[in-house]
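Entry type: protein chain
Record version: 2
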Amino acid sequence: MGEAAVRVAQSCDYVGAGTVEFLLDDRLDFYFLEMNTRLQVEHPITEMITGVDLVEMQIKVARGEHLPFQQADLTIKGHAMELRVYAEDPMNNFLPSVGTLTKYRPAKGEGIRVDDGFTEGMEVPIYYDPMLAKLVTYGQTRGEAIQRMREAIAQYEVEGVATTLPFGRFVMDHPAFLSGQFDTHFVKQYFSPETLDASIAPAAAMAAKVALALHLENKKKIVTIT
């Protein structure tokens, strides 16, 4: 695929950042889909596993500068994955969800990267792309990257609009995704609001139990002074 992507760029004398996309069939034959003559929203994944700032390199090339490395200098280290945190409601056919971000606290920690443009209190309007952030995790193995994504989703707090975070957790836990045996029909084959409800019910029940326990513990500490 890499060699084919290079030939696509060379065939039209393309210079600059670009993304070539292919489709893979069940026989592992791949087919050219399209070339985007820009960086894709998934570019942080490449940055995480190569250590190269693609935005900086894009600007350097546009200014006529030469790249400070050759292809042979680049290596891939570890695994990364990205979840697009959209203001969309997975319980309502992923329709846009608008409103005020009454709470917005992105995940933080080792191996976690968040590229966003929103802060708590801002409005999510109907007029633009509803993506709030790109949530990216890194690990030495794919399993470690997945586990970090689970932890990052659990940390991420958003109130005021519905988001794709619960759907992201559903994907991270699904056997088809974990095995790598899935295709572009993943949502059609495996996802429904009912399955999402079933997947988050245990976590919601546990959260309720923890909240109740904290409430009862705090009641014990209350001292009445007359």
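Comment: The mean pLDDT is 90.
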